[in-house]
Design a protein that fits this description.
The structure holds two protein chains of two kinds. Chain A folds into two domains: 2-53, no CATH class; 58-116. Helices cover 60% and strands 0% of the residues of chain A. Chain A is built from three helices and no strands. Chain B is globular, with a radius of gyration of 23 Å. In chain B, a hairpin with a 4-residue loop joins strand 1 (85-87) and strand 2 (92-94). Classes of the chains: A mainly alpha, B mainly alpha. The interface between A and B is medium-sized, with 20 and 20 residues.
């Protein structure tokens, strides 16, 4: 029974070995040309801005938008299996419809709150 | 239906891939669910009130709405007393303990809401004007001057109540997790809303959130392992799976342990109690009262349902653990409480000790003995009311910059304000379990249940811990009544109607249950056992 785990062990060894091999091979074979960009947090071509210099704060206006989007996203994910069940038109069409309306209305109420309290204004 | 969608549907909905299966209408007993629906509905309405009612009228509208909703929910619970029903396709069990705990949660929530309303509507509100402002910044001062008030505390508190109603009623692990989160998330926010000592409050909120999120993760991981063992998250199916095997599988033991960690965290049992003093101290006092009473009641309901209904077959495995947790909890609450100098931290350690006393009854049971279950129910009622009352008094003792929580400020309070100090002393006697208070009968009930369940060592530790806690309660009484007051002592706020009402409810319940405990003991006896 223990032997059935040998492939797992082999995979661990292979993964670890590959990591070690890659690091060593990179050291030995790769060129080393350091410049300022290489010391930045992400080498994706964009300078990381803005910086919280001297205890300053990041503007996080986008967090509200991002959060609202996630709520909306989850709502849509939830709608998919519902739509599949609804499409089969089982014995509970009215029930299914009412339940989903209740769900959407509840989420919508949260959006109404955000809208009325100025959460959708950028500045 | 395209093959791809059918494939997704098959993964998400068992049976959906087969076009001949129809989706059955789930059976929902709306009458049994009514208390939860009312409170959840009122919370949602509260969000709309925040959106549309002009600022000046929000506070009073929210207060009326929330109190009305809680009273309506209480009426619904009382009118449901004969219901013993597992509904919502087995997801929610509305049985005796559920109804009893829901009634208790609603009753203490009414008390807590009176305190919240009092401190939210007062001119020197206890809640931050604009929680998003940086503490000490110009923006914060501007918000205070503009007279902003976070009336969102009402819908948030109501969502928390809805979670507390669902948590002990949940009859499968997923519904229980939903209840856990619905009760926890608003509390994380509410803990950070104090107007004074805002950094302390925000620290409390962050600690509570991080540790709470961690304990939720434990719950989910435990749920996954239990599902791996039983093939279901429903309590009835878990019990069936356990009854068909003779020995404990590591999978289910570890799964139960992880679930237990999350639940013991919520009821602040040691060694998962570290958040309690910090959060109780930092949170606005009305919120502390609310979570100290409500969360503990709901969490004990949930713990008992998990242990007795789902994992009754494993009781020989979890009993020693509960024993150990009970002993450590009692010792920690009693011993560390002695060194406290802040009244809210002291009450926090007292609440930890009480969790330990309650756990003695849980650990002392042989599954299905009605006595221990009903003794826990009785204790929760007694504890809930005295907690609300005690924190209401803490709210009243004030310095120029808010509450005077340091015990040195309480010296000689009995000379200055005998009535308030007298009521606080009464609640302290109730915490200590001395006559003529409900605390006495509560302790007698749990220790008797524990003793009869064969947990005599727990009873001995409980007695000793009680004596130690009595020491620090009596020390405060001595400090209030038998020492000279300081020259610049704190002022005692004249209680408003709301606070008076909460205090009167607390005193009345503690005194009446102390003199005639039998009717409630009988009621608790009738409420058990759990529906399986």
């Amino acid at each position: 029974m223990v032997f059935s785990y040998v492939p797992v062990l082999a995979l661990f060894l292979l993964a670890g070995g590959f990591a070690v091999f890659s690091i060593i091979a990179g050291r030995l074979s790769g060129p080393r040309r350091y410049n300022r960009a290489k010391y930045d947090a992400y080498e994706c071509g964009i300078e990381p801005t803005p910086q919280p210099i001297g205890g300053g704060r990041f503007p996080v206006k986008y967090y509200l938008t991002a959060m609202l989007f996630i709520v909306f996203d989850i709502e849509i994910i939830f709608l998919y299996p519902w739509a599949v069940a609804f499409a089969q038109k089982g014995g509970a069409t009215v029930f299914l419809f009412v339940e989903m309306v209740l769900f959407i209305v509840t989420v919508f109420i949260a959006y109404v709150y955000v809208w009325r309290r100025g959460g959708l204004e950028w500045d | 239906m395209s093959p791809a969608i059918a494939h997704v549907a098959a993964a998400l909905l068992p049976g959906a891939a087969d076009p001949t299966t129809s989706f059955p209408t789930p059976h929902l007993d709306y009458r049994a669910l009514l208390p939860m629906l009312i409170v959840g509905g009122v919370a949602t309405l509260g969000v709309l009130v925040e959106a549309f009612v002009p600022r000046g009228k929000r506070g009073i509208t929210q207060t009326v709405l929330a109190l009305g909703g809680l009273v309506a929910a209480m009426v619904a619970v009382v009118s449901n007393t004969s219901i013993r029903n597992i509904t919502a396709e087995g997801a929610i069990s509305v049985d005796g303990p559920t109804l009893f705990i829901q009634g208790t949660v609603i009753a203490v929530s009414i008390g807590a809401l009176l305190l919240i309303a009092d401190r939210a509507l007062a001119s020197d509100a206890d809640f931050a004007a604009q929680a998003a402002d940086v503490p000490g910044s110009a923006a914060e001062q501007a918000s205070v001057r503009a007279g902003f008030v976070h009336t969102e505390v009402f819908p948030l508190a109501m969502f928390a109540v809805a979670g507390m109603l669902l948590f002990p009623a949940a009859n499968d692990l997923i519904t229980m997790f939903v209840g856990l989160e619905v009760l926890s998330l608003p509390l994380y926010l509410l803990a950070g809303m104090a107007r004074r000592r805002r950094l302390l409050s925000q620290e409390a909120a962050l600690k509570y959130f991080l540790l709470g999120a961690f304990s939720s993760a434990f719950f989910v991981y435990g749920m996954a392992l239990v599902y791996g063992y039983a093939g279901s998250v429903k309590f009835a199916d878990i019990a069936t799976a356990l009854s068909s095997s003779t020995h404990g599988d590591p999978l289910i033991i570890v799964g139960l342990a992880l679930l237990g960690i999350a639940l013991i965290f919520k009821l602040s049992g040691a060694p998962f109690h570290w958040w309690t003093p910090d959060v109780y101290q930092g949170a606005p006092t009305p919120i502390t009262a609310f979570m100290a009473a409500g969360t503990k009641i709901a969490a004990f309901g949930a713990l008992m349902r998990v242990l007795f209904v789902a994992f009754g077959g494993l009781s020989w495995d979890w009993r020693p653990i509960i024993w150990g947790v009970a002993i450590v909890t009692m010792v920690v609450g009693a011993v560390i409480g002695v060194t406290q100098t802040d009244v809210k931290r002291l009450l926090a350690y007292s609440s930890i000790a009480h969790a330990g006393f309650l756990l003695t009854a849980v650990g002392g049971i042989t599954v299905g003995t009605a006595d221990s279950e009903s003794s826990v129910l009785f204790y929760l009622v007694a504890y809930g009311f005295m907690t609300i009352g005690a924190f209401a008094i803490v709210m009243l003792v004030r310095d120029a910059d808010g509450e005077a929580n340091h015990l040195s400020r309480w010296v000689g309070l009995g000379r200055r304000s005998p009535l308030i100090a007298g009521i606080f002393a009464f609640f302290l006697l109730a915490f200590a379990g001395l006559p003529p208070t409900s605390g006495l009968w509560a302790k007698v009930a749990v220790f008797k249940a524990a003793y009869e369940g064969g947990a005599a060592p727990l009873v001995i530790v409980g007695m000793l811990a009680s004596a130690v806690t009595a020491y620090y309660y009596v020390r405060i009484i001595v400090l209030m009544f038998f020492q000279e007051p300081a020259v610049d002592g704190p002022t005692v706020l004249a209680p408003t109607v709301f606070t008076s009402a909460a205090v009167v409810i607390g005193v009345a319940a503690t005194l009446v249950l102390g003199i005639v405990p039998q009717p409630l003991l009988d009621l608790a006896g009738k409420a058990v056992p759990f529906l399986r």
